[in-house]
Amino acid sequence: MGDFKFQNRREFLKFTLGTAATVYGLNSYGQNNLLLEKGFTKLTILYTNDQHSRIEPFPENDAKYAGEGGFAKRASMIEKIRSEDKNVLLLDAGDIFQGTPYFNYYHGEIEYKLMTLMQYDAVTFGNHDFDLGCENIVTQIPHAGFDFINCNYGFEDTALSKNKKISPYKIYKKGPLKIGVLGVGIDLENLVDIKYTKGIIYKDPIANANKIASTLKNEEKCDYVICLSHLGYKYDTNKVSDLALAERSKNIDLIIGGHTHTFLETPQIALNSIGKEVQITQVGWAGIWLGKIEVFFSSYNKKTLQNNKNMRI
After folding, report:
1. Less crowded by CB within 10 Å, the N or C end of the chain?
2. Strands, DSSP E only, in the chain?
3. pLDDT higher than 60, residue 253
4. pLDDT recorded at residue 308
5. pLDDT tens digits for 167-176?
6. Which structural domains are found in the chain, ordered by start?
C-alpha cells in the first residue's frame, strides 16, 4: 500500500477515520457514532439566511422552486435533528423580512413568532429588516424569543437604543462547549430608504468583528467563534464581503453569510490574516435550503473534524 506520512495527530485522525481526502468526509452514521464513543463532542450548527418572508412554499407552478421552501417543512426538519442531536445551535444571517404579502400585512410578526417556535438561538440584521424602520423592529421584537446580534451598527439615536435583546455578541453553552456568536451588517446607504435608517450609524464591519472575535476567543475562551454576516459572499469590486472579512480576520472560525443569495453546497475556505482556515457558508434564500454543519471537538475542546450536510427543503 505504500508509506503514509502524517504531519501531526490531526492528519492521522483524519486518515484513520476515513477523512484523509477532505475534512468534510464524515459521511456515515457509523463514523459519527465512532467519534462520539471515542469521547468527541458534536456541535450541530443549523442556519438560514435571506428568508424574505417566505412563510409558505413556492407554488407548485413556480418555474424554478416549485413546492420548495416554507417554514413548516423546515420546522419538521429541525425538530427531527433536535431529536437526534444534543448540542444544536440554530442561527440566521438576516433579511428575515420582505418578499411576500405576509410582510406587507403583518410587518414581521409571523416570521418572528414562527422562528421562536422553531427555537432559533440568534439572528443578525439584514438591510430588508429595516424596510419599515427601527420602530417596526421595536414593535415586532416582543414576538421574538431569540437574540439579535450586531456589532457594527450604532443604534444610540434610534428607537432601538435601549433594547436589551440586541447585543454585539452572545455566548452559548452547548454541552462542555462555549460557542461565541457575533454579527455584522452591510452599509444601509442606497439599500434602505433614508427615512427608515435615520440615526443608525454604520461602523467598519471588519474592525469591529475582529475586536469582538478577539474578546470571544482570548478573553471569554470560546471554543468556536461564529460570525453572522449580512455583507454578501464576494464582489468584483472592493466592497466589503464575507471573503474580505475572512481574509482580514484572526479569531473567526466560521462565517454564516447572507445578502447575495449565494447557494454554497459546502463552506468555502479562506486563509485569515495569520494563515489559518476560515470557513464561509451561505444557503441561498427563501428557506429553500437548511444549512447544517456538524463539528466534532476532541476532549481538549479543539475543533478536529467536520461534516456538512446542507439540505434542500
Report:
1. N
2. 41-48, 88-92, 122-123, 147-149, 153-154, 166-167, 169-174, 177-185, 201-202, 224-230, 254-256, 268-271, 277-281, 289-297, 303-308, 311-312
3. yes
4. 77
5. 999 999 999 9
6. 43-312 (3.60.21.10)
